[in-house]
Amino acid sequence: MADQFPIEAGHILLFARSVGDANPIYYDEEYAKKTEPGAIIAPPTFVQASAQFTEDYGLRPKVGEWWFGSGKEPRGSGAPKPPEQESGGGGGGGGLHAEQHYEYHRPLTPGMVLHWEREPGETWEREGRRAGKLIFTESITKYYDQDNNLVITARSVGVRTERPATQG
Amino acid sequence: MALKASDLSVGQVHEEQVCYDLSRTQIVQYAGSSGDYNPLHTDEIFAKAAGYPGAFAHGMLTMGLTGKMLTNWVGDGRLTKFGVRFVSQVWPGDTLTSKATVKEIREEGGQKLVDLEVETVNQDGTAVATGHATARVD
């Protein structure tokens, strides 16, 4: 079955807390009724949590599988590392998020069930000052509700670096 | 509580401190809510082994914090576009301030819109995220 993201009020509350946003429209139904949207809505970056419901998402530990975060050893824990797997999951952390862009077509509210289509965008390279060669990869994801209405268009750019990017 | 086009002017700035002394716990909270469990963000031991000085925040946490400034200002459900580039890392202990600057006030199909330049800086004034947003205004 294709991945689906059920939009739930409790998840919106937890997400809003995690970005330090106390706006009652994210958890108080009575309050939300009196606002312009007229219902609880999700914060602008909430759709990123579709990762929770993406079956093959590599940055979530999976039961019984090797995980690349620390346990007894600084790199790698959980089940024994499969011999063919050199870096696992997020590739040992070499991939970072470079850009994220959203277009909002309709409010995201509890009760919606999103599905999505992802298409690859462009790939380009640049020489970084600290991290060596940078390889950028773009992907475009269109999120639809259960009635196939377009809800959000997301454009994401990831970057892989030769060396750890230590700036800031 | 939405913005009125007639109250806005090009160059107008709105800013908000969106986090103070960012805790590792908040980064863990964000990992849990977003589902991005990359240990680079929550696992100091792993992050050091991977060549970083320590664990650092998700870019998307910075974007989420930045979005809070926007929705607090333009109103709920008013954003039509929001995008950022992550230009510098955010570390535990950072204090972030997000700023929106009015670039243009325009009308499209009878709907008034405001285009904003968005920037989030840390306590040293270094930009950590830069981008743009568009919101419906009255």
Structure overview:
The complex is a heterodimer of chains A (168) and B (138). With 168 residues, chain A is mainly beta. Chain A has helices spanning 9-18, 29-33, and strands at 5-6, 66-67, 77-78, 95-104, 113-127, 133-144, 150-161. Chain A has a single domain (5-57, 94-161), classed as Roll (Thiol Ester Dehydrase, Chain A), CATH 3.10.129. Chain B has 138 residues and is an alpha+beta fold. Chain B has one domain (5-23, 58-136): Hotdog Thioesterase (Thiol Ester Dehydrase, Chain A), CATH 3.10.129. Helix content of chain B is 24%, strand content 36%. Chain B contains 3 helices and 5 strands, in the order βαααββββ. At the A-B interface, helix 1 and strand 4 of A face helix 1, helix 2, helix 3 and strand 2 of B. Strand 4 of chain A pairs antiparallel with strand 2 of chain B.
Q: Which secondary structure elements does this structure contain, and how are they paired or packed?
A:
The complex is a heterodimer of chains A (about 170) and B (about 140).
Chain A: E1 5-6, H1 9-18, H2 29-33, E2 66-67, E3 77-78, E4 95-104, E5 113-127, E6 133-144, E7 150-161
Chain B: E1 13-19, H1 24-34, H2 44-49, H3 59-74, E2 79-86, E3 96-108, E4 111-121, E5 127-136
Antiparallel strand pairs in B: 1-3, 2-5, 3-4, 4-5
